[in-house]
């Protein structure tokens, strides 16, 4: 028991020493950085010197001009409060802050060294729909509709003819797939004018939809006559035919067979 306590104490000592050596290294670096600028204080604008001062300590701090003994000097400080000024910046961790002061305020609070990546909001790269994803999009969309119908989504009793057993989409008949597409068309066409406009399709797009970033390109391609409305005929043609074509190609390449419903055939 005594040995165990001694061991714990030793470990604690090693841990504290490691921490204090990191902390003192930070302080040392900070002092070196400040010493390097000292000869220029009073000769160069402190705001300019601030641009050159790297902040190690306190962790998360930024350089501000402060008065020390009547002299304006550059100093690394943690902001206690920040102006309301809106001048967004993006941190190296990809988070947008209202202004740079807020970035350092949080960095200090979390004791995390977080630098400025650039002025302005962080730019989130838009997902690009690859050709491969675009090809499989109709199939994935029908798969999703099938799942919604099995979950008893509103109006899904129109799809009663579709087996509720968890058979994959590829085992449905063409007619069943067509009905599935038709049912979803009815749900989306809220004003019942027999066409899906931009507003109807907007309802379809949300984060749970598979390959959501391919949606816009796909729906545009469904509008065969480019009148900005997708009719039922355009919809089913686009969805059912293309998902079948993709699946047959996919199966023949990946599985060495172009048969759609391998599972059922295997069961017989
Ligand atoms: Ca409509
Ligand atoms: Ca159209």
TrEMBL record:
Residues 70-124 form the Kazal-like domain. GO terms for cellular component: extracellular space. GO terms for molecular function: calcium ion binding; collagen binding; extracellular matrix binding. InterPro entries: EF-hand-dom_pair (IPR011992), EF_Hand_1_Ca_BS (IPR018247), Kazal_dom (IPR002350), Kazal_dom_sf (IPR036058), SPARC/Testican_Ca-bd-dom (IPR019577). Keywords: Calcium, Disulfide bond, Glycoprotein, Metal-binding, Secreted, Signal. Its main location: secreted. CDD domains: EFh_SPARC_EC (cd00252), KAZAL_FS (cd00104). This is SPARC. It holds the Pfam family SPARC_Ca_bdg. It comes from Acipenser oxyrinchus oxyrinchus. Residues 1-23 form the signal peptide. SMART domains: KAZAL. It is found in: Secreted, Extracellular space, Extracellular matrix. Coiled coil: none annotated.
């Amino acid at each position: 028991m005594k040995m165990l306590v001694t061991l714990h104490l030793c470990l604690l000592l090693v841990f504290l020493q490691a921490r204090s050596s990191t902390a003192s290294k930070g302080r040392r670096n900070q002092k070196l950085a400040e010493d390097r600028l000292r000869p220029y204080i009073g000769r160069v604008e402190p705001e300019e010197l601030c641009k050159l001062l790297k902040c190690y300590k306190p962790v998360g701090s930024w350089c501000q001009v402060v008065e020390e003994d009547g002299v304006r000097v550059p100093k690394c400080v943690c902001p206690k409060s920040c102006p309301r000024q809106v001048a967004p910046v993006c941190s190296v961790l990809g988070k947008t802050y209202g202004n740079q002061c807020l970035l350092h305020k949080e960095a200090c609070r979390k004791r995390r060294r977080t630098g400025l990546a650039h002025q302005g909001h962080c730019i989130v790269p838009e997902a690009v729909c690859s050709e491969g994803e675009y090809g499989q999009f109709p199939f994935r969309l029908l798969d999703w509709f099938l799942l919604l119908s099995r979950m008893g989504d509103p109006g899904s009793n129109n799809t009663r003819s579709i087996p509720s057993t968890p058979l994959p989409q590829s085992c449905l008949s063409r007619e069943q797939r067509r009905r599935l597409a038709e049912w979803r068309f009815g749900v989306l066409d809220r004003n019942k004018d027999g066409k899906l406009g931009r507003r109807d399709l907007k309802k379809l797009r949300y984060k749970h939809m598979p390959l959501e970033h391919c949606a816009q390109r796909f729906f545009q391609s469904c509008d065969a006559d480019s009148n900005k409305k997708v009719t039922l005929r355009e919809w089913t043609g686009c969805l059912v035919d293309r998902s079948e074509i993709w699946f047959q190609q996919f199966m023949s390449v990946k599985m060495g067979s172009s048969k759609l419903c391998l599972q059922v055939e295997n069961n017989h």
